[in-house]
Amino acid sequence: MRHFDICVIGSGSGNSIIDERFADRQVAIIDAGVGPDKLFGGTCLNLGCIPTKMYVHPADLAASVQHARDLGIDLTLDGVHWRAVRDRIFGRIDPITEAGRQWRTTGMPNVTLLQGRAHFSGLRRLTVVAEDGSTEDITADQVVIAAGSRVRRPDVPGAEEVTLHSSDTVMRIDELPRRMVILGGGFVAAEFAHLFSAFGVEVTVVSRSGALLRREDEDVSRRFTQSLSERCTVRLKEHLESFEQLEDGRIRVNTVGPSGPASYDTDLVLTAIGRTRNGDTLATEATGLELAADGRIPVDKYQRTPVQGIWALGDVSSEHLLKHVANAEARTVQHNLLSPHHPVATDHRYVPHAVFGSPQVAAVGLTEQAARALGITYVSAVQQYGDVAYGWAMEDTGHFCKLLADPVTGHLLGAHIIGPEASILIQPVLQAMSFGLDVRAMARGQYWIHPALTEVLENALLALPLD
Question: Cβ(321)–Cβ(315) under 8 Å?
């Protein structure tokens, strides 16, 4: 049985822990791969953040035609060359994936890459099951669990008899469908609805919730739902009942909603109903480590599990299924492995996120409904894009920045932006919250470039009615 100083389970953010500073330690990286092709490098690189955003940019261009006409510019969309877009994207990503795998195979003599699924068979003892069914048992002084999460599949009649796509597979299809149904109302559904509708697909979004992006601030969720409904068919408060394979190759999606049963015949079904953490695949009970009720592996602020010598990070243990959070947690684990007597903690106080749909959405901190539910005293202000100079230039009529602040201290409690470049505009707010900059100092303690779009944030700060 081989023994290692450190074993990392997963090749996403966990893979970034091991660098030249670990050259004096024997390291095993165990990787099961992601997606149907068992790709090295984790979800973000291969199936998530990066390829989706590489699709969103051309989708933004395709969707700009009507807005250009509103501004007096006559643009036309002559066609979408799906395979050219797809092959450009994965022609760049796939070589990076393979280079990463090769580097971990041969690049560092102290690192051993074991390809297969891992599960615990004892305290810091792991069994690795390769694709061909062969197994190997290893032990390690320190184990880092960075096993990520997986797409959740619908569990309804007919689900096993039809072809259902997810974010794992839909980006590599050969042809654009004429019609598609997207099941879900969160980040993934929002981004793919934008992408495919911009490329000319007739998209129907079916969500069991009463609004899309329901975890966002209620004003943002309401506005986003309205906006997407102008481009796609949006069906809310409908619960999935079953699937049927039709003789002509299409799929029938059966639901039930406020008006009773409904059905949608479509060429392609994309399921975007959430993700499941992979902790349940690891047999952690063999170490005495019990999963939390929501499937998370419990960790403290230093990313340590309750079992000595076992660490966890990313989707498998974090409340936030976000790549930038997993990266931050990986840096924490890296430092603490290198400097165990001077540990650092991960800062989870202000975790931002963004949805790269159309319109973009970005947020950090409390929503207004959360502040009310917690009984927190706050003031709020809303600034419309269309009321600042760059908003005039864009003829923007529906997007805004919403801020929440403590009326006494002037510290920001939350920020919610819906509109162009929201993912960039949110960053100054995050900086202010992280470093304790109050609203007054942020608004008047620096120059705001005129007439940049950042004035929408400046004016929202100035509009907050502080004591």
Answer: yes
**Tokens for 21?**
């500073």
In the DSSP assignment, the letter for residue 298 is P
Spatial neighbors of 428 by CB under 8 A, at least 6 apart, are 442, 454, 457
Q: How big, in percent rounded to 5, are the helix, strand and coil portions of the chain?
A: 35, 25, 40
Task: Name which of 364, 465, 355, 463 is nearest 413 in CA terms.
Answer: 364
Digit-coded pLDDT (tens) for 253-309? 999 999 999 999 999 999 999 999 999 999 999 999 999 999 999 999 999 999 999
Identify the bridge partners of residue 8 per DSSP, sorted by sequence position. Answer: 29, 144
311 within 8 A of 346, measured Cβ to Cβ:
no
Closest Cα partner for 43 from 55, 32, 54? Answer: 32
Helix (H) or strand (E) holding 224: helix 218-229
- Structure-token match 């699709």, residue found: 55
CA separation, residue 464 to residues 403, 423, 457 (Å)? 8, 22, 11
Distance CA 111, CA 25 (A): 8
Q: How far apart are CA 322 and CA 302, in angstroms?
A: 18
74: its two tokens? 């006559």
Closest Cα to residue 206, out of 241, 173, 168, 172?
241
Q: Point out the residues that are catalytic.
A: 450
Cross-strand pairs, 310: 143
Whose CA is closest to 225, among 48, 126, 235? 235
Question: Alpha-carbon distance 170 to 38, whole Å?
Answer: 16
Q: Please tell me the distance from the alpha carbon of residue 407 to that of residue 466, in angstroms, as a whole number.
A: 5
Which amino acid is located at 148 in the chain? G
The string of pLDDT tens digits covering residues 377-407 is 999 999 999 999 999 999 999 999 999 999 9
Q: How many residues does the chain have?
A: 467
Using the structure block, give the residue that is written with the tokens 């936030």: 320
- Residues near 448 by Cβ (< 8 Å), separated by ≥ 6? 454, 455, 458
- Whose CA is closest to 443, among 423, 466, 417? 466
Place of tokens 């997986």: 150
The pTM of the full predicted model, rounded to 2 decimals, is 0.95
Query: CB burial class (10 A; 0-12, 13-18, 19+) of residue 396?
Result: buried
Cα–Cα separations (whole angstroms), residue 289 to 280, 303, 309, 339: 11, 14, 12, 24
